[in-house]
């Protein structure tokens, strides 16, 4: 579905000189700096994959999405998506993709989403009977029926975002790009959008690419993750591998029925390489290393030896993982 080979994008940025004299000199000769926003990016994606592109601010995610959607022309390298070269065959290509930019709207502000949907239907020349059935399904699954006839400017962010997702899918594309689709939304709306996307991927085999800063988006939706840093791809693989290699392990909190000291827990866990922290007289936190087999052992040993009233298991967040990758970025280049 997607083939990207040695993709590069450079921007030439004007450098302003300092002070009044500098501004005066700028009038006659300008200084420029070249920024490599995307640097030698290569990856392939099969039809029906749902994957995430992550990285810190300025890593090059938006520039990549803009090249993949045909908005920007690469400085060099190749992109072939669904048989099209995006920036060369834009008109035909955009009929096969849907795009949601979390920060920008594709709905008409003074019209209702429903009117925008109808306009988009005629822009994309969507077949009427089938298109209407598809639209009904989008309205139902995104649960937007109760406000789809109100002007967009009167909708809340969460309501509008669900309408944006519907608008991007009016022409039933094979591929959907979402740039920060859940930014600023509350938990319930996030959940609704995620559920919808999962269902779309399963029932329509739609290929979905997501960029996000919200780690729970990735955990809920994607097995595969691409991590970018300073324009380069530094990891391409399973989220589970990413966690195994760069995660901090698992944190388990035990709430005890009786007063329990960290030293008592240490006695039963023996030489197990985990750290134990006393939270208060009745609760303790155990940091279990990455190895998968250790967690069941810690849980069963502690439960068998103490009167435990509650247990909470917390996995390392993907944000921690990305931070860990950045700390060792010299080493990770080999894993992309
Ligand atoms: N139109 C442009 N002109 C000049 N430089 C640009 C332009 N667009 C992006 N850049 C630069 O390219 C680099 C990558 O930017 P990009 O927006 O792709 O990052 P990002 O990973 O999407 O970041 P964020 O998470 O903040 O959106 C940055 O250094 C940015 O300043």
Automatic annotation (TrEMBL):
SUPFAM superfamilies: P-loop containing nucleoside triphosphate hydrolases. GO terms for molecular function: ATP binding; ATP hydrolysis activity. The keyword Repeat does not apply. Keywords: ATP-binding, Nucleotide-binding, Transport. InterPro entries: AAA+_ATPase (IPR003593), ABC_transporter-like_ATP-bd (IPR003439), ABC_transporter_ATP-binding (IPR050763), P-loop_NTPase (IPR027417). Gene3D superfamilies: P-loop containing nucleotide triphosphate hydrolases. The keyword Transferase does not apply. This is ATP-binding cassette domain-containing protein. It comes from Brevibacillus nitrificans.
